[in-house]
Amino acid sequence: MWRQALGRLPALAVRGRPLGPGGGRAYAPPAERKRFYQNVSISQGEGGFEINLDHRKLKTPQAKLFTVPSEALAIAVATEWDSQKDTIKFYTMHLTTLCNTALDNPTQRNKVQLIRAAVKFLETDTLCYRVEEPAALAELQKKEWDPIVAWAEKRYNVTIGSSTSIMGPNIPASTRDTFISHLASYNMWALQGIEYVITQLKSLILSMGLIDRHITVEKAVLLSRLEEEYQIQRWGNVEWAHDYDLCELRARAAAGTLFVHLCSESSTVKHKLLQD
């Protein structure tokens, strides 16, 4: 259906196929397409803020009107479209993809299911799994990860801990309940963004530290790749591949975090940043 919608002028959708981690599925953008519009603008409709490509309304892969809850998010998405050159590189448009996922909800999950999926990551959180050997890596994990775990335990008044067992740490039920309660304070759109960040960093702890502005994107990505970075420093790497992966992960983590904050943004930006 979305392929047919893309071919119609009114349905200017970002195509995608269901794909995602943890049993969930989200839109994966196509590769590229020739730019077919000149101007990008935003307008306010009954359901929120809309994106206009010339005089056509942007639509989702399921041909729904692309409408976002805040003007700040609309401007950010419009900027993604406006920054495309002769070719539209959909894989660089993380905010647009996240909006499509929130609007179409291809996995048909409700708020409770989204929250439980996010909290389930605690069972396999990167920061909770430690090595015993080599000793240098074990010490590096302790030095870099322990402060973030300690911050999360104090911030949310929970017990998390870590383990060198393949079974991982035993996360108390009270800790899960606390995170479930905390995540329930976010709306559905923000929860989509939170889960997206978690799947990128493979860590609920790092994701909450990033969203709470306790750590930067660069720091969160570095900590999520700690073992890989250790191995690279020891054995070397294919430079271009490493740099590309690092930049991509930073871009996705940053976009997801920005998405969460903009989905919670209720104020209206008085002066449009994009003009015809």
Overall pLDDT: 86
State the major sheet: 5 strands, mixed
Please count the helical segments. 11
Oligomer: single chain
Rg computed from alpha carbons, rounded to a whole number of angstroms: 20 Å
Order of helices and strands: HEEEEEEEEHEHHHHHHHHH
**Share of helix, binned:** 40-55%
Residue fraction in strands: 5-15%
What structural category arises from helix and sheet content?
A: alpha+beta
* Distance linking N and C termini: 31 Å
What is the general shape? globular
Could you characterize what this model shows?
By secondary structure, the protein is α+β, with helices and mostly antiparallel strands. It contains 11 helices and 9 strands. Strands 1, 5, 6, 7 and 8 form a 5-stranded mixed beta sheet that branches. It has a two-stranded antiparallel ribbon with strand order 2-3. Strands 4-9 form a two-stranded antiparallel ribbon.
SSE map:
Blueprint: H1 2-7, E1 12-13, E2 17-19, E3 26-28, E4 32-34, E5 40-45, E6 48-53, E7 56-59, E8 67-68, H2 71-82, E9 87-89, H3 94-104, H4 111-120, H5 135-156, H6 173-183, H7 188-201, H8 204-211, H9 217-224, H10 226-235, H11 239-263
Parallel strand pairs: 1-7
Antiparallel strand pairs: 2-3, 4-9, 5-6, 6-7, 6-8
Which features does this protein show?
12% strand, transit peptide, 5-stranded mixed sheet, 276 residues, disordered N terminus, alpha+beta, chaperone
